[in-house]
Amino acid sequence: MTLTLATCLTAAAAVGGASGASAVPVRTEAARADTWSADAGHVGAVAGRADQLATLVRQTVDAGVPGVAVRIDDGHGPAVESAGQAPWTVADHKLAVDDEFRMGSNTKTLVATLTLQLVAEHQVNLTDSVESWLPGLVPGGGAITLRMLLNHTSGLYDYTDDPAGLASVTGQDQRQWTPEELLALATRHQALFTPGKKWSYSNTNYIALGMVLEKATGRSVADLID
Length: 226
Fold this sequence. Notes:
With 226 residues, the chain is mainly α. The protein folds into 2 domains: 2-89, no CATH class; 106-225, 3-Layer(aba) Sandwich (Beta-lactamase). The protein has helices at 2-11, 40-62, 106-120, 130-133, 146-150, 163-169, 179-187, 203-217, 221-225, and strands at 27-33, 67-72, 80-85. A hairpin with a 7-residue loop joins strand 2 (67-72) and strand 3 (80-85). Helix 7 crosses helix 8 (203-217). The longest helix is centred in the N-terminal third of the chain and has 23 residues, at 40-62. It holds the Pfam family Beta-lactamase. InterPro entries: Beta-lactam-related, Beta-lactam/transpept-like, Diverse_Enzym_Activities. Residues 1-23 form the signal peptide.
């Protein structure tokens, strides 16, 4: 179950504010395995995995996560899934294994993959400057390459560190931002360092990459991912 821990932590979703450090009772939806035709021995193994997953979900919530829903599908048998949450969150929403959540920064993996696919197809190059694709939108963009966006060495300010951006990320503000607006929000701030000289995680990098993908293909990022 080594991969289970990583999956749980990735899939952990807050259904309320942060909980205290002390353990709390947990409401857990029993882990279940999709039904399929198998011999008795394999069914028993699947049941064991489901029990392990339910235990891990409980431990994750006990550690302070308000709620978690996770599904494991390794392609070698039925999927196993489980959900659990702290009781104080139930009034807001009773968590179920088939609930859907925004996947957040997991989309960076998809955007990076799409970028490298376009590189392989000779539609973009990792040494291309941001200025060549998004002229006039990023101050100093001539010195920032697509590779720097990918590996967070561009020096671009993270728009989620701006109070306006943070309010939307945390749900305090329901504003729907366009990529152009988020990029403009970030570039109001000074660059953190000379491009390529340091490393700093910035969501702005992948907003810019998404805009490059759309310009290079004439399609939306959502369409490209789908």
